[in-house]
Write a structure and sequence with these properties.
- The chain is α/β, with parallel strands linked by helices.
- The protein has one domain: Ribokinase (UDP-N-acetylmuramoyl-L-alanine:D-glutamate ligase, 3-Layer(aba) Sandwich).
- It has 11 helices and 13 strands.
- It has helices spanning about 40-50, 65-75, 115-120, 125-130, 140-150, 170-175, 185-195, 210-215, 265-280, 285-300, 310-320; strands spanning about 5, 10-15, 30-35, 55-60, 80-85, 90-95, 105-110, 130-135, 155-160, 180, 220-225, 230-235, 250.
- It has a 9-stranded mixed β-sheet with strand order 5-4-1-8-9-10-11-12-13, with helices on both faces.
- It is globular, with a radius of gyration of 19 Å.
- The structure holds adenosine-5'-diphosphate.
């Protein structure tokens, strides 16, 4: 396997509605859809759709949602190891979207929080063959630490610090080679790990040299701050290790017809992992450009995992 994702699986349930119900009120839905979600699984789907062998380690409950999870992974050709927690529910997420496109979300991580460090570390065959190990912050911290610590010596350890997690500290960051916060997560990391207070909204407007200096406060690892429609900023301590010419640079976002940005960050991270695994000798900048294209195209389709474009679709749209 080339990419190994360790993380969360949830089933999303999405209702459209004219306006949010008041406490005690019942409102009729205007349409319903359901599908896979969870940052870990979304990222695994994004990676697999780039044509790269992808494996996923996660946790499921003892319920019907677990069966759906297995079927969805199989449909995308993702090799899975599921820790089954029979006394728990599978992760689930209820999303209500009103006529203005605002949403209200209930997320129950359930079995994801039980993903066990020992279970993760026991999947030694997957760690032995992984070129990239990718984790996020929707499972217990022990499982995340185990995944990063079990990576083989030549493997890229990619940490997407999403969503913001109160216990993410410099010790966990030090286990990664590359970290990919969005603006909110970057502000939280700077606060927690460097004692630097900065408003998330101010980050995209910082000068490149300022952004690079801020990234360097997080330690020796490389950092990619994703900036939504403003693209992303890449910062290295050692650009040669990543075959890059410059230690700090911006990559612009593609112009697309945005419909739903849910899962853009997941598309970016999964595709980045896939590129790093498939083309290890190339400049990181090229992998970042491809990841940005995958993420941009994913915003043209509603939903998260279902919206992940294939490599062929990305090449057809943007060329090589
Ligand atoms: P998250 O979903 O984690 O908040 P971002 O919003 O920063 O992450 O998006 C991740 C990446 O997706 C961006 O760096 C960019 O490449 C791409 N992207 C996000 N929103 C847009 C957009 N409106 N237009 C084009 N690309 C986008």
């Amino acid at each position: 396997m080339s990419v190994l994702v360790v993380g969360s699986y949830n089933q999303d349930h999405v209702w459209r509605i004219d306006r949010f119900p008041q406490p005690g009120e019942t409102r009729r839905g205007l349409g319903f859809s359901t599908g896979p979600g969870g940052k870990g699984f979304n990222q695994a789907v994004a990676s697999a759709r780039q044509g790269v062998p992808t494996a996923f380690i996660g946790a499921l409950g003892g319920d019907a949602l677990a069966r759906t999870a297995r079927e969805l992974a199989q449909a995308d050709g993702i090799a899975t190891r599921w820790q089954v927690c029979d006394d728990m529910s599978t992760g689930s997420c209820g999303i209500v979207v009103d006529a203005n496109g605002q949403n209200q979300i209930v997320l129950d991580l359930a079995a994801n929080e039980r993903l066990d460090a020992a279970y993760v570390a026991a999947q030694t065959d997957l760690f032995a063959s992984a070129r990239v190990v990718l984790v996020q912050m929707e499972t217990g911290l022990g499982a995340i630490r185990a995944a990063l610590s079990s990576a083989n010596a030549g493997c890229v350890r990619l940490l997407n610090p999403a969503p913001v997690h109160a216990e993410l500290d410099a010790g966990l960051l030090a286990l990664a080679d590359l970290v990919t916060p969005n603006e909110t997560e970057f502000a939280a990391l700077l606060d927690r790990c460097a004692g630097t207070a900065l408003r998330a909204e101010a980050i995209a407007d910082c000068r490149d040299d300022e952004l690079h200096a801020l990234c360097r406060r997080l330690g020796a690892l490389s950092v990619i701050v994703t900036l939504g429609a403003r693209g992303c900023f890449v910062s290295h301590a050692d650009p040669a290790r990543w075959h890059d010419a410059s230690p700090g640079y911006r990559v612009a976002a593609e112009r697309v017809h945005v419909r739903d940005t849910t899962g853009a960050g997941d598309a970016f991270n999964g595709a980045l992992a896939a590129e790093l695994a498939q083309r290890p000798g190339r400049a990181l900048r090229e992998a970042v450009v491809h990841a940005g294209r995958v993420a941009a195209l994913s915003t043209e389709t509603a939903g998260a995992a279902v919206a992940m474009p294939t490599r062929a679709a990305v090449l057809q749209r943007f060329g090589l």
